[in-house]
Amino acid sequence: MTWKNTNAHYGRLSIALHWLMVVLLAATYACIELRGQFAKGTEARALIVQFHFMLGLSVFTLVWLRLLARTLGVTPQIVPAPPVWQTLLATLMHWALYALMIGMPLLGWLILSGQGRTVPFWGLALPPLMGENRDLAGQIQDWHMSFGEWGYWLIGLHALAGIGHHYVRRDNTLVRMLPRRG
Fold first, then answer.
1. What b/e string do you get for 107-130 counting C-beta neighbours within 10 Å, with b at 16 or more?
2. What CA–CA distance (Å, rounded) separates 68 from 127?
3. Residue 121: closest CA among 62, 52, 66, 24
4. What is the pLDDT of residues 58-77, one digit of tens each?
5. pTM of the model
6. pLDDT tens digits, 121-160
């Protein structure tokens, strides 16, 4: 298998980025869900929230590589071809997921910037995107939380569609994104 996409299958780069981002997104969501297990003000809670920031920014970094990889090759064909309405819904879903992977980390970065806090990224302190403005940071945090909830639905529907294509439609949608063996 080549690193570039072909008409029949996604390449190694696209597959690796897809599944790495699945893991990163799951870990990002897990961190924010698990923070409630730790009392406010504790080091453990601060650490898990910091990991949420860093994992989210890792998604933001990798999504650009993923978009570049998408432009470098063809999109493998689905066999048998789905109806036009399904293709349109799939395109809208993919762009909504890309918007989530770009927008959510940016909103998180803006929240920290507006709170006057350091933006951690694996040992680096990223520059603020705006000056301190706690009121605006609170409003952005509300958006971040709402979009995060929508993200659960987008990710779940995306996974369900892949499973539906594989087990109900019996096409190659899911198989195109799985690593080949041998």
1. bbbbbbbbbeeebbbeeeeeebee
2. 25
3. 52
4. 999 999 999 998 888 899 99
5. 0.93
6. 999 999 999 999 999 999 999 999 999 999 999 999 999 9
